[in-house]
Specification:
Layout lengths: L1 E12 L4 E11 L5 E4 L4 E7 L2 E2 L2 E4 L4 E4 L7 E10 L7 E7 L2 E7 L20 E8 L4 E4 L3 E6 L5 E5 L12 E4 L1 E8 L2 E8 L7 H18 L7 E7 L6 E2 L4 E5 L11 H17 L6 E3 L5 H19 L5 H17 L17 H4 L2 H18 L1 H14 L3 E3 L1 H12 L3 H9 L4 E9 L2 E10 L2 E3 L5 E7 L2 E7 L3 E5 L6 E3 L8 E4 L1 H10 L5 H16 L5 H11 L5 H18 L3 H18 L11 H15 L1 H8 L13 H12 L1 H13 L3 H11 L5 H13 L8 H8 L5 H18 L4 H14 L4 H8 L2 H33 L1
Parallel strand pairs: 1-11, 17-18, 18-20, 21-22, 23-30
Antiparallel strand pairs: 1-2, 2-8, 3-7, 4-5, 4-8, 6-7, 9-10, 10-15, 11-14, 12-15, 13-14, 16-17, 19-20, 23-24, 24-25, 24-28, 26-27, 26-29
The structure holds zinc ion.
Length: 805
């Protein structure tokens, strides 16, 4: 069966939020009966080649069965109605702001079927001709430019969009609302940001990023962008970061509405998100996975090029540092659990995709691709990718097809190495020991509950007394000659997805050379030490010794990596003396050195380091919090990188008296990133009652669905509110799940909150999740419970480590 095209005619009643639609599907070789995907639609009539035919709407299976479709080329026309629900953030939905809304779509993976009957699988690519008729005074945007705007019956406006190239159903997009645009050009391509009215002025930063990176991608892929325009639409309520609809990226507002007055970390995140989505215009949109099994590749590849291209167009963001902090390091912790899964998993039903496509698939997948790039060589990798894109343009492909092209371009067995890493769970640890004048490297699988047998083909980069040495380990162990007492760094540059365990003299030497290592290597060492401590395989004292050493060197990657670790440890065991003493040895000297106010000659990323350090230190040192809180009066004039810390300090020190002023302030902000910082403060009170008041704003709907992540994730990390948060979560679980439509995003949040907030309530959480919830949250909850167990044991060890001192 082949779908040639969809002619989609939608009459959108904007005030009533309803649609009357007609879809004409031109199809060849249809089976009998033709089974279309179709959900939440009321079917009025079905015609085949102009004649009415029999049809059955199978609601439980979301199928529309159409009879009497001939084998040859036919036109199946379906006339239907749809009511747009107030609840969801998928399919076609109301993205609300104040009293208004825009109607917008989000189809990945299986929501196109809720807007028009179709064969809703990525393999069935087709041409789309879309026409939208709606009330006068509204605008409409879709994947392709508007060919013409007509006057329609009843004084309505009809937008007729140009025909799309062949593409998958999940990439179709449209929005209707009161919109405003900003335009620029990238060569022959028009780049446009669209926002709600009054907001477009703040989309200039993102507009320029998209225009710049589009030109760079054309060079990298050696393939022109195939559409005449590219939109970025800022959607007021959006459940994920952004979505790569071909020619019309949709995004939450915080990734588009960013200006010179935004914090460094917010600008970096917005730029990275856009570069990622533009990468998908080729990888994902032009060439699409055959089936959801390869969604991991789609996302991992876009994630890899996100950092690669960001580094080229905006080097000030130090993209490869961000890659380690956001991708490699978080993935390595989760992949150390025995409940992890291989990057590549078999997906039978599209619905399952949501459960498996998580940090393991995306982040680890991206880290493995980075390792394959280092193995194949940068230019051979680029050439292989470019050949792959040309060969499968407007069509579909699999991971194997990509390995084949990478292998041909590099003349190396890329497929073999790729398969070894992608089809088995976990990752190796390299044990490094020195025997005489030989360094011995031995591999096994690292897990939180011990080392297991396991073999990976590992490309190893190491530094021996500062000199680089590369080797490839495929057996259990390998030896490298070196002078006795040499300084070693294994996995130098951290392109490898494995951890490194030195012997005792090795750690001793490492401590001596640590301050002189590169920022990347320091962060890598700290990540390994933290992992070994989590697993109970390393005395906490050794980890904290390195944390103190890092307190002497302000550098963004290692510093921010440790801030994140200490913040997690604080949630687990705030009262442990060993942790309290680490705050003084790490935060205090670094803040004394970099200060609260930016210096004109400092690198840009010092802003994000300052933001991370001050916000966390304000939570653990009351004197420091008092000092910062005194600057709250001047809040709107503060350096944007200092705002979160000042707001947090204000809440921390004033308690109840801070609540009303913060709630008043948050209402005045038009921008999501500004509101996010105030919600972080409203979740940082030391009085758990006040934190619960904030959480209740999420479920009452007062906090918008887009903003809800800020109070939710921040409150779950607040050790004073740990118990209260748990109680609230147990009480509001079903409501939250409903708010997020049982989506990937919901499980992502639960995966972040639960292993920390429940550290003193393990048995209770186990009971709470057992049965139906466990079944629904499958892989996520298995991991939650294992990580929780790990955290419970770590808590005991941290509390005990304090007592010995
Ligand atoms: Zn993506």
């Amino acid at each position: 069966m082949k779908i040639e095209s969809y002619d989609l005619d939608l009459d959108v009643d904007f005030p009533k939020a309803s649609v009357v639609g007609t879809v004409g599907i031109t199809i060849r070789g249809s089976p009998s009966p033709l089974s279309l995907d179709c959900a939440t639609l009321n079917i009025r009539s079905v015609r085949v080649n102009g004649k009415p035919v029999r049809f059955i709407l199978d609601k439980p299976h979301s199928k529309l069965k159409v009879y009497s479709v001939p084998k040859g080329r036919s036109l199946v026309q379906i006339h239907y109605e749809k009511q747009i629900s107030d609840e969801t953030m998928f399919g076609l939905y109301k993205a609300k702001y104040g009293q208004e809304y825009m109607l917008t779509t989000d189809f990945e993976p299986i929501e196109a079927r809720t807007v028009f009957p179709c064969v809703d699988e990525p393999l069935y690519k087709a041409v789309f001709r879309l026409r939208i008729t709606t009330q006068k005074g509204l605008s409409a945007i879709s994947n392709t430019p508007t060919a013409r705007v007509e006057l329609a019956e009843g004084g309505k406006t009809r937008f007729v969009f140009e025909e799309t190239p062949r593409m998958s159903t999940y990439l179709l997009f449209f929005t209707v609302g009161k919109l405003e645009e900003l335009r620029t050009n990238s060569g022959h391509i028009e780049v446009i940001t669209a926002t709600r009215q009054g907001q477009s002025k703040d989309s200039r930063f993102v507009l320029d990023v998209v225009a710049d990176v589009l030109a760079d991608y054309e060079k990298y892929f050696a393939d022109p962008y195939p559409l005449p325009k590219l939109h970025v639409v800022a959607v007021p309520e959006y459940h994920t970061g952004a979505m790569e609809n071909w020619g019309a990226i949709a995004s939450r507002e915080s990734r588009v509405l960013i200006n010179e007055d935004s914090a460094f970390s917010d600008r970096a995140l917005a730029a990275g998100t856009m570069v990622h989505e533009v990468g998908h215009m080729w990888f994902g949109d032009l060439v699409t996975m055959k089936w959801w099994d390869d969604l991991w590749l789609n996302e991992s590849f876009a994630t890899l090029v996100e950092y690669k291209m960001l580094d080229r167009i905006r080097p000030e963001f130090k993209a490869w540092d961000m890659f380690l902090r956001n991708e490699t390091f978080p993935a390595i912790t989760l992949d150390a659990l025995s409940t992890t899964h291989p990057v590549q998993v078999r997906i039978k039903k599209a619905e399952e995709a949501n459960q498996f496509f998580d940090i393991i698939s995306y982040n680890k997948g991206a880290a493995i691709l980075r390792m394959l790039e280092a193995y194949a060589g940068e230019e051979a990798f680029r050439k292989g990718v470019s050949n792959y894109l040309k060969k499968y343009s407007y069509s579909n492909a699999t991971g194997e097809d990509l390995w084949k092209e990478l292998g041909a371009a590099s003349k190396l067995p890329v497929a073999k190495v790729a398969r070894a890493w992608l089809t088995k769970p976990g990752f190796p640890v390299l044990k490094v020991s020195t025997v005489g004048d030989q360094i011995k490297l031995t591999q096994s699988r690292f897990t939180m509950s011990g080392h297991l047998p396991g073999l990976w083909p590992i490309p190893v980069d190491m530094l021996i007394d500062g000199r680089k040495k590369s080797l490839f380990i495929s057996g259990r162990s390998a030896s490298v000659p070196a002078k006795v007492g040499s300084e070693l760094v294994v996995n130098a540059g951290r392109t490898g997805f494995y951890s490194v365990l030195y012997d005792e003299p090795g750690w001793e030497r490492m401590a001596r050379s640590f301050p002189g290592l590169s920022s990347t290597d320091r962060a890598g060492v700290i990540t390994d030490l933290h992992l070994f401590m989590q697993a109970g395989q390393l005395d906490p004292e050794i980890y904290f010794r390195f944390v103190s050493l890092a307190g002497q060197v302000p550098d963004s990657l290692a510093t921010e990596t440790i801030v994140r670790q200490l913040s997690n440890l604080r949630t687990i065991a705030d009262e442990a003396p060993v942790l309290r003493s680490a705050y003084g040895k790490f935060y205090a000297p670094l803040i004394a050195r970099i200060g609260e106010d930016a210096r004109p000659d400092e690198p840009g990323d010092m802003g994000s380091t300052r933001e991370a350090l001050t916000s966390e230190y304000a939570k653990v040192d009351l004197d420091y919090a008092r000092k910062l809180a005194s600057r709250f009066e001047d809040y709107s004039h503060l350096d944007p990188n200092l705002r979160e810390a000042v707001a947090v300090a204000y809440a921390e020190t004033r308690g109840e008296a801070a609540k009303e002023p913060l709630l008043k302030l948050v209402k005045t902000y038009e921008s999501e990133v500004d509101r996010g910082k105030i919600y972080a403060a409203l979740s940082s009170f030391s009085d758990p009652r006040l934190v619960v008041d904030t959480l209740e704003l999420v479920t009452s709907g007062e906090v918008s669905r887009s903003d809800s992540a800020y109070p939710l994730l921040n409150a779950s990390k607040n050790p004073h509110a740990r118990d209260a948060f748990c109680d609230w979560l147990f009480r509001r679980y079903e409501k939250l799940r409903e708010m997020y439509g049982n989506s990937q995003q919901f499980y992502l949040f639960m995966g972040i909150c639960m292993p920390y907030c429940a550290v003193t309530r393990e048995a209770e959480l186990r009971r709470f999740l057992s049965g139906r919830r466990m079944k629904e949250g499958g892989p996520t909850y298995a991991r939650v419970l294992e990580l929780l167990g790990t955290n419970v044991r770590l808590r005991k060890r941290l509390l005990a480590a304090g007592k010995q001192n």
